[in-house]
UniProtKB/TrEMBL annotation:
Residue spans crossing the bilayer: 12-33, 45-65, 96-124, 153-170, 182-204, 224-248, 260-282, 294-312, 352-372, 392-416, 436-460
Membrane topology: Multi-pass membrane protein
Species lineage: Bacteria, Pseudomonadati, Pseudomonadota, Gammaproteobacteria, Chromatiales
Protein name: Transporter
One GO location term (cellular component): membrane
């Protein structure tokens, strides 16, 4: 048995603190902003079903694998992969999994921060009463005014990046744990209230039907890849965010139980958000497939008409900002931890370097919504015909980099690492639960990721299986 290593960055004060931080990382814009709009774009029910299946069969086992690798390696994902590869006598190229994760984190945060900036802007719009009595049209034009102005977007993006750098610079423990403790429960309460409002909106049934009645003729291979990619994105998997959080986890915490808890909370938030939004979409004659503006064009209508809407609307966007904030910090933590370990810089400097680089890349996303809105660099590929740079960054990271990262993590954990080491680290014995995990990570994840990729590239076509009936 190898003695446990120790992290130089400190550790969470308890198992609960880890659950809160990892939940904070998982629950974010992905649940409230992205899930509804991509479900809307890909026809609803069938997409949601594929997404849920991916969470259960791929997401939870990969989350356990990432936490396990992090806790065993106790360093930034790059150094963890290097150390664990050495321990297993494997090729040191495995450290590239860590590097790819750092790159994915940068790219994701670069656009994530811009969208979080929209949420920040909406806090102030809501507070000023801009939504009171608003119609779908009025709310739509508020959204367009914001996104068509690069200077405003830049200002909010800058504020959000600075907020992120401040928390990351302060380190693992202070601030973060507290924020999530308050955030997750409040978010639940607010979403349930919004669901109550949606229930009375007259189109609740239609919304639920859209979300939960699978119609497989509405989803194609690309839709399946997007659903799978989103399972990685929403659980913060495939890039080392959960791995680095796992490296601060105290010994003797059940990895299986914590992973399941985090995944359930995350899924619940996404479904509650979807159930609030689609009834509003239908009762206001809006299109479910409008894209990234969906929540910003629907929820304000509800706030504009309910009693106390100014307070609730403001609170909702504040919570959304918090949710994005606790995710953003996990997106650059792998890079920051590596800079501290390998470059001998302080956390403060590391946060500034990593944050400034991300901020710069964010300009591409800002321009995608205005000056470059008609620039479609890959328009010669049919699925990217209308994709802006923002769309491509999102596609590249969520649907390609994260699933590939997940695939590598699966292969490493279940084919490269010694079985007895994973039994020891997961600490749940060698019974049916361990075997189920091992089977899912060893076979199900790699096969699923590879099949879905082959399908999208058109090399193999399984679509007749869906349409057989
Ligand atoms: N899980 C976050 C969300 O759903 O908003 C986004 C995210 C955070 C993705 C951290 C990846 C990551 F490593």
């Amino acid at each position: 048995m190898t003695p446990p290593r120790k992290s130089i960055h400190g550790s969470w004060s308890s198992r609960l603190a880890f659950v809160l931080a990892a939940t904070g990382s998982a629950v974010g814009l992905g649940n409230i902003w992205k899930f509804p709009y991509i479900a809307g774009e890909h026809g609803g029910g069938a997409f949601v079903l594929v997404y849920l299946a991916c969470i259960a069969l791929i997401g939870i086992p990969i989350m356990m694998a990432e936490v396990m690798l992090g806790r065993r390696g106790r360093q930034s994902p790059i150094n963890t992969m290097r150390a664990l590869a050495a321990e297993a006598n494997a090729n040191h190229a495995w450290r590239w999994v860590g590097w790819a994760g750092v790159a994915a984190g940068f790219l994701i945060l670069s656009y994530y921060s811009v969208i979080a900036g929209w949420a920040l802007a909406y806090v102030f719009r809501s507070m000023a009463g801009a939504f009171s009595g608003a119609t779908a049209e009025g709310v739509g034009s508020i959204f367009i005014q914001l996104t068509e102005d690069p200077e405003r977007l830049l200002a909010w993006h800058t504020i959000f990046m600075v907020m992120t750098m401040i928390v990351v610079a302060r380190g693992v423990k202070s601030g973060l744990e507290q924020a999530v403790r308050f955030l997750v429960p409040s978010l639940f309460v607010l979403l349930i209230m919004l669901d109550g409002y949606a229930m009375a909106s007259g189109a609740f049934d239609e919304g639920l039907r859209f979300l939960f009645t699978p119609d497989f003729s509405k989803i194609d291979a690309n839709g399946v890849l997007i659903a799978m990619g989103h399972a990685f994105f929403t659980l913060s998997l495939g890039m080392g965010a959960i791995m680095v959080y796992g490296s601060y986890l105290p010994e003797r915490a059940s990895i299986a139980r914590t992973s399941i808890t985090i995944a359930l909370l995350d899924t619940l938030v996404a479904l509650l958000a979807g159930m609030a939004i689609f009834p509003l979409v239908f009762s206001n004659g809006l299109e479910p497939g409008v894209g990234p503006g969906l929540i910003f064009q629907t929820l304000p209508i509800a706030f504009g008409h309910m009693t106390g809407g100014v307070v609730f609307g403001t609170l909702f966007f504040v919570l959304l900002v918090f949710a994005a904030w606790t995710s953003a910090i996990s997106l650059i933590e792998p890079a920051v931890a590596w800079l501290v370990e390998n470059k001998g810089v302080t956390r403060v400097h590391a946060s500034v370097y990593a944050g400034a680089a991300t901020w710069g890349v964010g300009l591409l996303t800002i321009l995608s919504f205005n000056r470059w809105a008609d620039f479609h660099p890959l328009s010669f590929i049919s699925i990217f015909e209308k994709s802006t740079i923002f769309d491509l960054l999102d596609y590249l990271t969520a649907n390609i980099m994260l699933p590939l990262g997940g695939l590598a993590i699966a292969i490493f954990s279940a084919w490269v690492m010694r079985r007895e080491d994973t039994v020891q680290e997961l600490d749940m014995g060698d019974g049916p639960a361990y075997r189920l995990w091992h089977f899912l990570v060893r076979y199900v994840t790699p096969v699923a990721v590879i099949i879905v990729f082959l399908n999208v590239t058109g090399l193999v076509d399984f679509s007749h299986l869906f349409r057989a009936g």
